[in-house]
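We store chain and fold; example below:
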Amino acid sequence: MAPFSWMVWSFPNRYVEESYRWRTFDLHDWSRNEYEWKADPPGLWNDRVQRPSDTVRKGTGDCDDYALVAASCSVSKGRRGVGLAVMGHYNWGVPVPTHMIAYDRHETYSSGRIRHESPDEFVERDRRYDWVWTRRVR
C-alpha cells in the first residue's frame, strides 16, 4: 500500500460515492461473478486509486479499489457503522500496511470476499496481519 491509498484512508469522504446507483447495485453478485483482483504495478508511487464507478466498469482493481465500491454501496444503502480499515504486519516494530478493506456493522468486504465479521475478527482469523486501524466513513 502506497501513499495514494493513505489518501483514501485519510479522506474517505472524497472517494466514497453516495448515489442511487450504489443503492441498487448488487455487490454480492458482482463480487462473485464479475470482479477480478488485479494488483497495481509494483513500486511505491504506482498505487493508483480508481473511482468506484471505474472499478465496476473495468471489473478489476486492487484492495483499495474494491473497498471503495463496497463502502459506496453500504453508505448509499444506509447501513450503519460504515468504514475503511487498513491492516498489516510489524517489521522491526514498525507497522507496515499491506491491505485495505471496507466494513459496516455486519460485514467486512475484502477484495471480492464478503464475510459476517468485524475488522478485528478479520485480523484474528487471517494470520497474515498483526494489526488493524479502522476509520469510519459516515
Remarks:
- The chain has six helices and seven strands.
- The first helix runs from residue 3 to 10.
- Residues 40 and 47 are 6 Å apart (CA to CA).
